[in-house]
Sequence to fold (400 residues):
Amino acid sequence: MLAGKRILLIIGGGIAAIKLPELIRALRAQGASVTPVLTAGGAQFVTPLSIAALAGNPIHTDLFDLTTEAEMGHIQLSRSADLVVVAPATADLMAKMAGGIANDLASTLLLATDTPVLIAPAMNVRMWEHPATARNRATLAADGIRFVGPNAGEMACGEFGEGRMAEPAEIVAAISAMLADGPLKGRHVLVTSGPTHEPIDPVRYIANRSSGAQGTALAAALRDLGARVTFVTGPASVAPPEGVTVIRVETAREMLEAVEAALPADAAVFAAAVADWRVANAAGQKMKKDGKGSLPALEFAENPDILAIVSQMKAGRPGLVVGFAAETHEVERHATEKRARKGCDWIVANDVSPGTGIMGGTENAVTIIDATGAEHWERMGKAEVARRLAARIAAALGAG
Ligand code: C5P
Fold:
């Protein structure tokens, strides 16, 4: 699948580097050629000799190595690949990338490259969650850097949480997705997905039954057509797809912020089930029963309508804006009205009345409303709906 593809593989200094031999073997098994670059930290975990032997290519370690510089300058090296992969991407490497710092070979290559970059972060959960890393993640995502992982699980340091490097097979899948030649190659598509959680107090929230399945399938289908996908997801019960940039949010207001930060995009698809209201008087501390049977009075405020805001943008509106409509009755009429009210180009409407099993289920029966009218699709799997929608989006962008 990766025959003839050239991958520049930057190996950062983290314990996850011990999985790199497996990654290199898997990439070569698929026909890719791998040029390894080892940071000083990376060399503490794997040896240059073993990596070079597995890669079957010379390894680069030092910015000021005259022999290698004479063979291939670092600028040329940074541009000689189809894809630059950083694995493991440490907090330090991510910070350097976000800040444009170039003080060793790896960071210099990352600053000099004009090739797409995929990073597989790996670090302690506290480092991953630190506001500084969160800022760097957002900066890198906005710069078009793609992420694979990290995953949640037990860490080498004994703690548990998000920060484990994606498995080699997942990294290979993300690489394949990025190198796929499809009609949407070079296009950026934004997808929102999942429910939102609106806090009542620090431990309680208001949510809805959305699983995120349709949005996830759609993001995967767009990726498979070669698009660069930014996937803004609420707390969904299905895992986000590999090979897309995942931005996790909880509330509607966070989702709007993430969407605005992810623009511009060629197309934006709003599959999230966003809460219409948030609790205006959410408590800063856990609410307690007072023993006298008094009931809390929740007050609500309206959430921003992300789809409407993006549809009605004066400048920088995506060329195609697609909304979803979950309706329980008179689906076509309500969806047609919704399209006009929000100002989007298409509405993908579905009937979520109880008994259809659609919300949270594996199948969907949709009606597409656009400027020309309504198009009814028979009931089919959500993955198939996603494939057909992605193809329709590619066609609308003139890429089909
Ligand atoms: O108005 P309603 O919630 O039915 O509209 C559904 C569509 O609008 C979906 O595409 C949903 O993602 C989007 N939406 C949004 N922000 C909101 C509410 C809905 O983007 N606050």
The chain has two domains: 1-179, 182-400. Residues 182-400 form a domain with the Rossmann fold fold (CATH 3.40.50.10300). Residues 192, 252, 270, 272, 274, 276, 303-307, 323-325, 338 surround cytidine-5'-monophosphate (CB under 6 Å).
